User: What shape does this take?
Amino acid sequence: MKVRYLEIANFRGIRHIKWHILADFIALIGPGDSTKTTLLDALGLVLCPTYRSQFTDADFTDCNLDMPIRIEAAVTELPDSIVTENQFGHDRSGISPDGRLEHDSVPGTEECLLIRLEVDHTLEPVWRVVRPDAPDEGRPISAAQRQKLGFSRIGDYTDQHLKWSRSSALTRLTEQRSEMAAVGLAAQRRAREAIFESLGGADLLQEAADEAANRARRLGSAPFTRLRPGLEPPSTSLAQPLLLHNESVPLTSYGLGTRRLTSIAIHDPGASSAEPQILAIDEIEHGLEPHRLAALLTTLKSRAADGHAQIFLTTHSPITIENLQPPDAHVVRSTAGITTVTRVSESLGIDYGGIRKCPSALLSRRVLVGEGSTEFGFLRELLNRTDSFYGAAGKAGSAALGIAVVDGGGGTSAAQKAAIFAGLGYTTALLIDNDDSNADAQVEAAIAAGVTVIRWEPGRAIEDALIDDLDAHGLKDLIALAAELKSESAVRDPIQAKLAKPCGQLEGLDPTAWISQTGKAAGEILSAVQAASCGRNVNTGEQASSKGWFKSIDAGKALGGFVWDRRDALRGTAFMQRMQQLIAFAYAPASAPENDDHHES
Amino acid sequence: MNLDPELVLHESVQTILGNLPCSVALPAGCGKTEVIAGVAKAVAGRGGSTLILTHTNTGVDAIRRRLKRFGVATSSVNVTTIDSWSLRLIRSHPQLADINVPEAPDWGRAGAYHQAAARAVGTPPIERMLKASYQLILVDEYQDCMIDQHELVHALSEVIDTAVLGDPLQCLLDFGQQTPVQWPRDVLPVFPEVAVAQHPWRWATTNPELGEWLLRIRAPLENGEPIDLDTAPIRWLWSGDHQGITRACRDADQRTVAALGHFRQDCIGRAKLLGGSYFLLEALDEQRIMKFCTVVDTGESGRITAATVEFAAGCATHVSKHVDRKVRDRLHRGGTWRPRTPELKSAAESLDRLAAHPSPANVRDALQQLVSMDTETAVYGQEAFTDVCKALGFAHDQGLTTAQALSRIRDQRRRSGRHIRKRVIGRPLLVKGLEYEHAILLDADRYKTNHLYVALTRGSRALTIASGTRKLNLQEPGLYRTKHT
Assistant: This one.
């Protein structure tokens, strides 16, 4: 069975969601308050194969009991045993490829069962099979019938899957269920016998029993012949005693990763079932080393690809994301109680348009895309410094606010990447140079997608913009920093080359001294310095290149530190205005509706 | 003949299962229900399930009882009527069936419902449901299928192996406006006939000679030849001997007796003579009863009061003696009835109340007062009387018109079938499918072939035939012959 549609109303942090599910392998990705675990919980409840569901007032959105909890799931690929006349053959609906529900399974739709779980203020859950647009209440579906839908959840209580308990997967693997009860009962009976035999009569327990017999006799109760200690008679209602062991060690004593992997293995549909299973796994990486996680993901993905299973999982792990294909990744966002799930487009290619390289960004709330290595390093350092500064003042740092900095990988690519993040629902900003008009169209598109674009004046790169606003002192320090990162000649020679001949020889690193050495105007020297700092060749019209001073992440970081240290000197400049814009974006308080999921850990 | 019933049944079951799809023509009393249960049991034994369709709830009950006796688990059979199966299907799949059925189905549109069901059966989702649910479909009393029902069964047989069982000689037209299936024309091309052993089990312990005779006369009946009663194991009476016939009815001491006439009026006359000791059955579409209900619904005081008296007089003895035509005319004009005898006073008062407030409840009250006016009064038109009283009660309780209420009662009976009563009087159509110990044919000369055969086969112990001579000449040759011999 597969779930193709899920609608939730008034359940915990989800006021409403309508989710048309296309994939068979669904990795739910999003920051910690995006209600993705609530989605798994809702799925687990509506398809729940047991009666054990307990609801509390807190399960209602805002604890408002006036609005019932309602979870509806459309399940396709139904087994024959469900579609008979005496089961739900007459209760099937249809679902079209674009997710539209039809009363009947009319041509162009796939047959499905629409299962609704409703809980009102009595907290009594009611499961029914309903039809779209039907006035009647539908037909009740029992736990035993829901069990046929083949849903399993690997969550916090994995240990139950290691026991032969009611409706556990191990029990389902056991052909003869009566056998299971018989084995347990026989063992309990033998234990009872053994206790009677081993307690000969001389020990303290027997003394107490004898005393009880004496007292009973004095009070004239029944004429007991032999009071003695013994085990309670066995019954099937006692706790299920059968548990998976390795040698004599119960599997429940093993480590978390092993327990979870074994549980998943027991559910593995490839191992036993002809019917596709639905498996929901919360925090798949929980307890697993990277290599076991990667192996598990590979297996699960192949099960889904074979059509043997539909897998829902949540993850907080960049390793999981690195192991996914774009269409596997489903970004979950929650705004004002409205949850949305956006599938990462397949058209982005294997690299998700470069996003796979920044898996942690997919787990964040806000994304700051830097054009290239320079900006990436620059922004990282800027946030580090700001974090320390705010930390000293007791304010939340960027990590706590869920900000991720992403390397855009160059002008056009950076703008595209920013647009993709914005499209997936992330609040996104882009820091980009303005010396390459080739990127203009992409930048426009990014703005249209909702990206906050921070760009320098026309014709200016970050280095140009900074040098524009530095005083002579500052410029001297910047040249010194560049020489430190590269070498004196590597800084000086390109400047020399950019000055028109005839021209005196440059010496030292003081730009003021260069004026007298060369006899050139200050403006000409400044232009040459700017061009050299970005690695631009004015004569050939060459764009900024790796010959620039800060064209690496580390150099970008150094630049960031340089700017931070001179923030007082730069106050009020055009450069500093943009810095303030960046800081404001990164440290904006999370808007209230975003964090209303109080259930997620 | 020395036959082991179990062996015979086993052979019949194997023949049917080995020749699907097929039709089986089994005469009355030859263990058709037994064969159905046997086939279902064989299918269940292989782990399969059978859908068994018939026409009335009485039929459903009879098959269920037999299945229970055969030890067939209820999970491996679904026994229902064609109508309720169709209704459930088209209600749950209105888009596939392309029909919307109102909350109270309009059985006047039964044909459209069956067509819609056939449409749905042809769609992949329903095909899948049927294949997941059943290995075999059996349809009983196939001779009673309307052509639309037959088309539905035909559609079903394209999906699931199907066998249909019936007796073409027992096909009696029930609802005038619909076309019944014709065995040679409609059934045989789709469901080729297979022959199974015909042994009259119904009479095996009660009257084997009668059973054999009833089998023997099938050929002459089908060929329109006269039936010789001289050698028949029956009691013969001359149809002119009215007293003798009445006496035969009175003296019949079997546990259940069916006295069968030809026209309604004959039955009413005989029922009157028998003074209510026989329960008079009425056709489901009897116009006169419906007409009275429509009059009640007019609310016209005088007209209703007169009609009430008239209806009571048509159902019970002595009513017209006390309230004669003159009185009825007076009542019609809005006058009153002042009987001289004090014991008639309460009946007269009920009519006064009715004239003042012509409500269904007051009609019912007046009817009950009228038929218990004196100790001599006896109701002989029981079915009409109780149906009308019930309809008046429904009309009062549920805010329906009396006519609507009567329609509901009739629909209910149409689907449920009749219960067996100790002594009934009516026409063959009304006792079709029912079994009595003694059948009395009040005037056997006037029946059409199929009606005659149904009448002859109703009694399991005794058969009494009243006719003009000891040779029965048929009114028309057999219409529904299975073969041309």
Summary: The CA atoms of residues 419 and 446 of chain A lie 5 Å apart. The mean pLDDT of chain A is 85. The longest strand of chain A covers residues 2-11. The interface with chain B takes residues 80-81, 83-86, 89-92, 94, 102-106, 111 of chain A (CB under 8 Å).
